[in-house]
Amino acid sequence: MVSPLAAAEPAGELAAATTPGAAPSQGAAPSEGLTDAVKKASAEKPAGKIAGPGVSAAVEAAILKGMQQLMAANAGMKVEEIRTTPIDGLYEVRVGSNVVYADAGGRYVLADAQLLDVENRRNLTNERQMELSRIDFTKDLPLDKAIKQVHGKGERVLAIFEDPNCSYCRRMRQTLAGIDNLTIYTFTYPILAPSSLTKSQKAWCAKDPATAWNDMMTAGTEPDNAGDCKTPIQDVVALGRKLNVTGTPTLFFPDGNRVPGAISPEQLKQILDAQNGQAQPGGAAPKKG
């Protein structure tokens, strides 16, 4: 189960606005989840009744059982108190100095704005967010407006929105360089600084845009040209707005799922392996004007 008790958010850089030259906002470290917060809580209280007025013994036992399952991998956590709330059937659960909420059966827990199905080890909030952000890879992404790179046979596919001034994008590019049998569609998305647009233009105007972009992202080598050719960059910016791409890097996969932020090689390989059997798009290689 992906939950705020253990999960770390991918790292990325956020745009203040989806227009070229918008001021950047560095991707912050993953938000403090229940795990980290509770580790800073005070020492455990002496054993005793933790249920407040109106909480039956059966409800107390059910919630404790659910919380113990949720916190099983985190030694030192302890439920300090269970109280009723103004909402019938919803209980406040204090863990150290932090508060989460649980149903009377202890199956569902609301922690850090994440609704968790404890019994089935599912993060229902994440699942719903993924569903809402899913796209149709072949219909929603105009692959002819992306820079295409092929590693090996290129049987596995992803699309990525990148800004040339994005440090997390450069980190992600290093990860992509180590993945074989992969086709990468890069949508140049200059949203972090005024120079992002200039650099993106120069990459597109290079003799080999794929090599130019890769060299710029991995070695910091800016293409030596005026950057005055016709490019699809403004179309890509409009596409990013439409798809609600608010930070870079943002990755899309053939099953329609998106991943905001840089991820590890292990995470990327796991996602790509799960794409087996998905229809693989065969978008045309980009043309430069």
From TrEMBL:
Localization annotation: Periplasm
Domain named Disulphide bond isomerase DsbC/G N-terminal: which ranges?
56-126
Q: Which Pfam families match?
A: DsbC_N, Thioredoxin_2
Q: Signal peptide span per the entry?
A: none
What name does UniProt use for this protein? Thiol:disulfide interchange protein
| Comp. bias intervals (Low complexity) | 1-32
| Domain of life, per lineage | Bacteria
The segments labelled Disordered in the record are 1-40
SUPFAM superfamilies, alphabetized = DsbC/DsbG N-terminal domain-like, Thioredoxin-like
Ranges of residues in domain Thioredoxin-like fold: 151-272
Recorded family membership: Belongs to the thioredoxin family. DsbC subfamily.
Q: Which GO terms describe its cellular component?
A: periplasmic space
**Database matches in Gene3D superfamilies:** Disulphide bond isomerase, DsbC/G, N-terminal, Glutaredoxin
* Alphabetically ordered keywords of this record: Disulfide bond, Periplasm, Redox-active center, Signal
